[in-house]
Amino acid sequence: MAQSLLDRHDVELAALAAAGGRREFGELVRRHGSAVRMLLRRMGAQSAEADDVAQDAFLQAFEKCAEFRGEGTFAAWVKRIAARLYLKRKAKDARYVAELEPEQAEVTVSPDAAGLVDLDEALKSLSEVERLCVSLCHGAGLSHPEIASAMNLPLGTVKSHVKRGLDKLRARLSGGGEPVGRAAHVV
Amino acid sequence: MSSDEFDPMIERLFSRSPQMADATLFAAEVETKLQSSSRVRTVALTVAGLIGGIIAVRETTNVSLNLNDGSSPVAGRAIGQGVQAASLNVQEAVNSGLTQFGLSDMALGSMGGMQLFWIAAGALIALAAAGVMRLSQEI
Predict the structure, then answer these.
(1) pTM of this prediction?
(2) Which residue out of B1, B14, B29 would a mutagenesis test of the A interface target, given it has the greatest number of A Cβ atoms within 10 Å?
(3) From CA B94, how far away is CA B119, in angstroms rounded?
(4) How far apart are CA B6 and CA A173, in angstroms?
(5) A1-93 placed in CATH 1.10.10.10
(6) Which end of chain A is more exposed for a tag (fewer CB within 10 A), N or C?
């Protein structure tokens, strides 16, 4: 009896997709679509934009499926493609560069009623560039040099943004509720 | 919490993402796009092939009808000679390349200049079609 798509491993499905199997690729999209869309939203994309970029990322992944060798997870591989596509789109939008400059207002965060905050809420306390850097690093699995290259920023700046972003998240997630400070600009 | 404990925790939080309610709809949209892009590609390649083929047949007919004719116009003869000279150059270049790789025994030398010209033209059309497809994927 033929093995059901649901029983197949991602690597196996990716190999079948590389040979042109659209149904097999569809199963991969069903499995990992939400994770990719969620990452893009965490990077700061609006729902519609996130879905748009995620679709493009999956279409690109289908074309490049033969390049996926199962060294990492399939989801991580597509997330990297999606993150790069989103950055490209942002780079085309000159607004992105401009947003690195303005000083950010002081943000005071406090834990919610249950004393707990989730990651998505906590990410809102970060500036856009910090959010991008932290999401790229910890969500898409890009290294600091890869982020620097993709965002066209100096490596030191990326490291600062990631560190500052993580500090804010730590403050937020530990429920301290202390002010997370004014964003300094290291360029 | 130290950063040694915090960083893995953040990564775990990032990797946790609930299945969205419209996950099936999203997958269906991607599959539809895949199908339509595959259709567009097939149509584009077919059209490119047809156009290339029609041009090739038409040009071959024109050349044999007009340019090989001693009474053809001077400009036509000049173009014909130019094409033949270019074809011979290509042929010589291919032959010298094959000789370098020890493949001089291949029967390419016996091909006519026009045959080589059309092989090269076919390769160029294929390259152009591949380029257009690549560009369409990028867009």
Answers:
(1) 0.63
(2) B14
(3) 12
(4) 10
(5) no
(6) N
